[in-house]
């Protein structure tokens, strides 16, 4: 008799594969790890950035829809895309 | 505060204090990223995403009123790390404090190591409660006296002043890590410490900042061959030559620094054999160890992976001696947890003072106490609703499926944005610090 009990993990895996048929076979492989190692990296050229900033003055500002996580050489970041890098001068709320 | 710190389930936990803002709109900077008691338990440090450290000090107990449990109040707060931009690599360096580790106290001052992704800093926290008064050449406000009016000699004396706590950076250990630092651990030799990133572990001397020794390097010659990363590392509490590091593949390697300068070859490899028929897409991801902690007695170590906590006997490499399920009901939710990235959440774990109970966090602001001696476990919640002084925490139950009983919460109602990743247990007493996203809860044992 065929065993029809599927472990919950395998059932979840089937669900995932149904949603993302192109998902790689080895999730723990180098792609996932390399993404982890390069966390925080922005491909950013300051020359291009300044050029884009200058061009922006004459153009209408686009609505921010661009993929913020994948800023590569093809996509020239604009001042609007980059998160604010404000220094924390505010005291922690735990210290109140 | 009497008590050997034992018995997680004989103990009734009561709310003691909560720190942080009440409002739901949480600024990123306020997200707590690490919590750590010092060696005596008198001080409790927190680090946040904004690079700030807040230290709380336990009030000295009022002996005449033993009912009054001592509270933790703000002792010092400072900006440990600032955001940086590495122009050479186009890399943004977050100021988030990944770990804080206290040094054992040697003199009147307190020292701690705090680290972000790239730089470790040694901070000195010292008290000043006296100041010199009666300078010969200066007025009290600092202005120099007119030399012609000085006719007598007076010698300054120290007079008491309001306590001032000062934090100053004494050492900055920079530029030693290409990848992101996940752990620091102070050695029992009280001279060195280690720092670990995804691929390498370095050994430092606490006094020397311009050089460190690489003791583990798992970077493959060809990055395409990368199969695992280092997720946590810790020195043995007593043996200064021994440390362990855990990996994203669920293994722990114990290394002996006496064996060779570069500890790429482990002395022991702890790995639980996996049933290949149970293997799924998620197997490796959920086996990734997010934290490893030695027991206080140095005989065991605990590892935390996505769904469980495992206790290993250092003398047995082939399987853990104990395994506890933290939230097994999540196994049938792995698909959505992968989609919302929760499957990559890094939970920490901690031991109580006498190694009889371990604690770890979960979702919905739940945390779990796992009693090793009594083989019992309980789920508790850190919430503003149970914030009345000395209110005993009620155990929580999650209903995995089927009929939900009264007082149970169904898996689908759990709030996965309310994660308890960081918890700490006082080294001797039954006092615990539990960090929700932006609040710090302190719970204590009920005293009758």
UniProtKB/TrEMBL annotation, chain A:
GO terms for cellular component: cytoplasm. Keywords: Cell cycle, Cell division, Cytoplasm, Mitosis, Phosphoprotein, Protein phosphatase inhibitor. InterPro entries: Endosulphine. Residues 63-96 are annotated as: Disordered. Coiled coil: none annotated. GO terms for biological process: cell division. Pfam families: Endosulfine (PF04667). It comes from the Eukaryota. It is found in: Cytoplasm. GO terms for molecular function: protein phosphatase inhibitor activity. The keyword Cytoplasm applies. Protein phosphatase inhibitor that specifically inhibits protein phosphatase 2A (PP2A) during mitosis. Belongs to the endosulfine family. This is cAMP-regulated phosphoprotein 19.
From TrEMBL, chain B:
One of its GO terms (molecular function) is protein phosphatase regulator activity. Keywords: Repeat, WD repeat. SMART domains: WD40. It comes from the Eukaryota. One of its GO terms (cellular component) is protein phosphatase type 2A complex. PANTHER family: PROTEIN PHOSPHATASE PP2A REGULATORY SUBUNIT B. Belongs to the phosphatase 2A regulatory subunit B family. PP2A consists of a common heterodimeric core enzyme, composed of a 36 kDa catalytic subunit (subunit C) and a 65 kDa constant regulatory subunit (PR65 or subunit A), that associates with a variety of regulatory subunits. This is Serine/threonine-protein phosphatase 2A 55 kDa regulatory subunit B. It comes from Triplophysa rosa (Cave loach).
């Amino acid at each position: 008799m065929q065993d029809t009990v599927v472990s919950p993990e395998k059932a979840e895996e089937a669900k995932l594969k149904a949603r993302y048929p192109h998902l790689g076979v080895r999730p723990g492989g180098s792609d996932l790890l390399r993404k982890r190692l390069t966390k925080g990296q922005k491909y950013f050229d300051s020359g291009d950035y300044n050029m884009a900033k200058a061009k922006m003055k004459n153009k209408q500002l686009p609505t921010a829809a661009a993929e913020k996580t994948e800023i590569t050489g093809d996509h020239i970041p604009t001042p609007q895309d980059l998160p604010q890098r404000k220094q924390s001068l505010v005291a922690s709320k735990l210290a109140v | 505060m009497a008590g050997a710190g034992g018995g997680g389930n004989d103990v009734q936990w009561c709310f003691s204090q909560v720190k942080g803002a009440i409002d739901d709109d949480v600024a990123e900077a306020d997200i707590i990223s690490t919590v750590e008691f010092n060696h005596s338990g008198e001080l409790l440090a927190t680090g946040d995403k904004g690079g700030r450290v807040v230290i709380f000090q336990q009030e000295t107990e009022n002996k005449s009123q033993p009912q009054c449990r001592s509270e933790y109040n703000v002792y010092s707060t400072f900006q440990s790390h600032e955001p940086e931009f590495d122009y050479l690599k186009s890399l943004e360096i977050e100021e988030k404090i990944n770990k804080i580790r206290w040094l054992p106290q040697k003199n009147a001052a307190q020292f701690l190591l705090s680290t972000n992704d790239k730089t470790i800093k040694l901070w000195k926290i010292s008290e000043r409660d006296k100041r010199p008064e009666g300078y010969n050449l200066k007025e009290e406000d600092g202005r120099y006296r007119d030399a012609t009016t000085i006719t007598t000699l007076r010698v300054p004396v120290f007079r008491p002043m309001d306590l001032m706590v000062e934090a100053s950076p004494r050492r900055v250990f920079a530029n030693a890590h290409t990848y992101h630092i996940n752990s620091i651990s102070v050695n029992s030799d009280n001279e060195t410490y280690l720092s670990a990133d995804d691929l390498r572990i370095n050994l430092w001397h606490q006094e020397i900042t311009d050089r460190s020794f690489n003791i583990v390097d798992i970077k493959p010659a060809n990055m395409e061959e990368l199969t695992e990363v280092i997720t946590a590392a810790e020195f043995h509490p007593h043996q200064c030559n021994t440390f362990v590091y855990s990996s994203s593949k669920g293994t722990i390697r114990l290394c002996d620094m006496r064996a060779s300068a570069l500890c790429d070859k482990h002395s022991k490899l702890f790995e639980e054999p996996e049933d290949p028929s149970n293997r799924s897409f998620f197997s490796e991801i959920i086996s990734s160890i997010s934290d490893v902690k030695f027991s206080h007695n140095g005989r065991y170590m605990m590892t935390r992976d996505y769904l469980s906590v495992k206790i290993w006997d250092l003398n047995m490499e082939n399987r853990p001696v104990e395994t506890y399920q933290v939230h097994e009901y999540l196994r049938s939710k792995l698909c959505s947890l992968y989609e919302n990235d929760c499957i990559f959440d890094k939970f920490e774990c901690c031991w109580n003072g006498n190694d009889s109970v371990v604690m770890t966090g979960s979702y919905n602001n739940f945390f779990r106490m796992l009693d090793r001696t009594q083989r019992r476990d309980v789920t508790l919640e850190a919430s503003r609703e149970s914030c009345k002084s000395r209110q005993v925490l009620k155990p929580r139950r999650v209903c995995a499926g089927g009929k939900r009983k009264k007082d149970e919460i169904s898996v689908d109602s759990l709030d996965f944005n309310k994660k308890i990743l960081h918890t700490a247990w006082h080294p001797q007493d039954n006092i615990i610090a539990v960090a929700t996203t932006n609040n710090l809860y302190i719970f204590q044992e009920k005293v009758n």
